[in-house]
Design a protein that fits this description.
Layout (H helix, E strand, L loop, with lengths): L5 H5 L2 E4 L18 H10 L10 H18 L8 H13 L4 H6 L2 E4 L10 H12 L3
Parallel strand pairs: 1-2
Length: about 130
Amino acid sequence: MGHRSKEEKDSITKAPSGPPVDLPDLPEPSPLWDPIATDWYLSLRQSGQAAFYQPSDWAVARYAAELMSRVLDCSERGPNGQLVAALNSVMASLLTTEGDRRRARMELERQKPGTVQAPASVTAIADYRSSIGG
């Protein structure tokens, strides 16, 4: 890894890893999806970056799972390269891999075993208070 300046380190958004505590009610996976697409969609609910998702992001996640199902269903002729590229782009927009998060300057902090995760909003308020000397 390359050296990061103080400004670069300060500009990284940090979030706890693991499932966000305040997820909205989300649609269940389609029974028609490939099991790999279902697992991927459900894994987002357990991922730290989901704390930043808005309803439109969850809609994109459902679209990505549908697209993934179609890519995986191309067994006879093999997957279409354009479809795979489109899927990779959509998945990257949801910050689903470590590389995607690094490019977006987001870092998920690993939790120590046995620690209880505070909601992101509580952490943000505590950080704000400490920055103003409260």
